[in-house]
Amino acid sequence: MKKLKGEHIHLRALEEEDIIFLFEVENDEDFWEVSNTTAPFSKFILKNYLENAHLDIYTAKQLRLVISKNNSEEPIGFVDLFDFDPFHKRAGIGIMIVKSEQNKGFATESLQLIIDYCFSYLQLHQLYANITEDNTQSISLFKKCNFQQTGTKKDWIYSINNNFKDELLFQLISEKC
Q1: How does residue 117 score in pLDDT terms, banded at 50, 70 and 90?
Q2: Phi/psi of residue 169, nearest 5 degrees
Q3: pLDDT digits (tens, 9 = 90+) for 142-172
Q4: Pairing of the two strands 90-97 and 126-132
Q5: What is the distance, to the nearest Å, from the Cα of residue 140 to the centroid of all Cα atoms in its chain?
Q6: Phi–psi pair at 30, nearest 5 degrees
Q7: CA–CA distance, 119 with 71 (Å, rounded to integer)
Q8: Which of 53, 49, 58 is nearest to 12 (CA)?
Q9: Dist CA 44 CA 34 (whole Å)
Q10: Cα–Cα distance between 38 and 122 in angstroms, integer?
């Protein structure tokens, strides 16, 4: 599908071969705060997840796509759609790029591709992202892609440093109807 291929990267479905990458990412404690994870995932649980990854977004109400460079199928990150609500035409969005591939424009290109896919193919009216106040890279990324901060959830995230963080709500509303 051309909508999911950009100049440098493409978004693709999860494959069985992605189990090791998925295992490493889901069990990286640095990502737990933003993914609401509190315990490690076993390969067995992730294998079951992969077996159901083929489910249609309208059934599963979520979609995870792998970000890969155009010259490779090796994963460098994920883009997630969650809380998919076809009636209200909205979904939450999250993105993760491995540290070694950050600051190379891959997140921006991935976000632009998934925005286009959501608004043109899924016919969504809006996307939203929840970002902790100290995640300046994500705030910058989403602002760069025209998301607007529309709210603040005070003391929303309890961090490993035994303090609370505000979570910012960003929205992108399609101008198409």
Answers
A1: very high
A2: -105, 125
A3: 999 999 999 999 999 888 778 899 999 999 9
A4: parallel
A5: 15
A6: -65, -25
A7: 27
A8: 53
A9: 23
A10: 32
Amino acid at 176: K
| Listed residue (49, 53, 50, 109) closest to 76, CA to CA | 109
Domains, in order of start, for the chain? 2-173 (3.40.630.30)
The label of the residue with tokens 């994870």 reads 37
Give the tokens for residue 89.
């035409």
> Do residues 26 and 46 touch, judged by C-beta distance below 8 A?
yes
User: Which DSSP letter does residue 146 get?
Assistant: T
Query: Coil, strand or helix: which one is 102?
Result: coil
Which residues pair with residue 157 across a beta bridge? Answer: 165
> For 11-66, what is each residue's pLDDT tens digit?
999 898 887 877 776 666 666 555 565 666 666 665 666 666 667 788 888 999 99
Q: What is the DSSP annotation of 46-100?
A: HHHHHHTTTS-HHHHS-EEEEEEETT---EEEEEEEEEEETTTTEEEEEEEE-GG
Angle at the Cα of 168 from the Cα atoms of 88 and 155, rounded to 5 degrees: 115
Q: Do 80 and 63 touch, CB atoms closer than 8 A?
A: yes
Angle at Cα 157 formed by Cα 44 and Cα 66, nearest 5°? Answer: 40
Tell me the one-letter amino acid at 65. L
